[in-house]
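tl;dr need the bound structure. longer version: we got a ligand (zinc ion) that a collaborator sent over and nobodys looked at where it sits. i said id run it. heres the input, straight from their email, havent touched it
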Amino acid sequence: MKPISLKEVIDFAWEYSDFYREFWGRRNFIPERDFRVDDDLKKIPILTKEDLLSVSTKKRSITRSKDHYYFAALSSGTVKDPLVCLQPRFAMPSYYRFVKDLVQVSDSSVLVLRPGTHAMALIAGALPEEYFLPGSIIALGDMDDLTFSAHLAQEIEMNWLVAKPSDAIRFAPILQQQGYPLSHIKFLHITGEPLTAATISLIKSLYPDACTVYIYAMTEVPAAMGLKSSLCADLDAVGSNAYHLNTEDFIFEVVDGLSVITALHEIPTPLIRYSTGDRILIKEKFQCSCGFNQDAVVIVGPRAGETSYKIGGFIFQVDAIKKVLQKLPEFVVGDFQLHIEQIAKDGRLSNLLRLVVKPVGSPTPFLTSTIREILERELYVTRYRLLKWAIQQGLIDPLLISYDTDLKGSSIIPPLEIIKPFHNLKKK
Ligand SMILES: [Zn+2]
């Protein structure tokens, strides 16, 4: 059942939101005149992240005391333009209910291993929806101190873990070192990063007794847009980022290959024809091995026009790499391609980076080692950590460098398995 109708969402925005009145007004869309039937959705101007960022969070948010409280959810993308959205709750999609009923974890002891801003919005938004049953214990781990987090897990006898896929994988050996049996973990709530076959298989082998729910969501939305579980072998076969589509809380459209969503909820910043920027493919008829009886599924690809990419616990940014390469003008042109792949190796996740650069003269082994050295020393791959640190920790493999004299422009290329379903489409 849909939470509210499309018309109700539009009326809500038009009545209460100065932001929407102005945004639609400037584009000559007047709901009373232009929206009569659901098919008129197509007439509504498309909203982008830039439109949301053009005003402050407070200015574009409808806040009402009947929602009780709002929690600021922060997009952890680039530092330049973090998008803040207020959410009163995080609606539980029907797929989540379906999996929870199968697992029936009572007496939950939940460890949330997410950054503070995310964790607060997630926990507070989940409470009114009873993601965790009353009587549950909820603890917030410290992502920069996994040993401490493992101690906390042990004390509360954690059986439910909320984490990014790469963090769940990094956390497993530390829990084991601490003497905490991974078989105690019955439920994994995995979100925040694109998945690869390597991450999915590692999570499965490290947490053999856990039912895992993988969530596709973003800061702006009041519920997960796509979900799958460790029971969805059929979906995994379609693609590592294939999910059951949440058609209950959202209306999805595909416009120029990108997802445009309408959230059927009265949220502080209503989302009506919001272009998420995500490349998606929707398959209408799909029977999944998990037994869920709604048949629309979605394959999620990389975001269009993004100049950064987050995966494996790291963020790779075009500008940052360019800046380092520009320090070697006598050797290389600033253009580059950074190819990222993930593989599972000895129970660990390896992030493989291959950098293709355009040499000024003929490349030499000296040039290769110079480029490698300066990138390791100067390129940040998290907010505070350098590439060198990640390599020393064994989280990123030593950088591979190759040359291409025809290279034009700079880009980050996500793992092939993530972009492959979209290859044919691009050629059209
Ligand atoms: Zn499934």
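gonna send this back to them w/ a short note. The radius of gyration is 22 Å.
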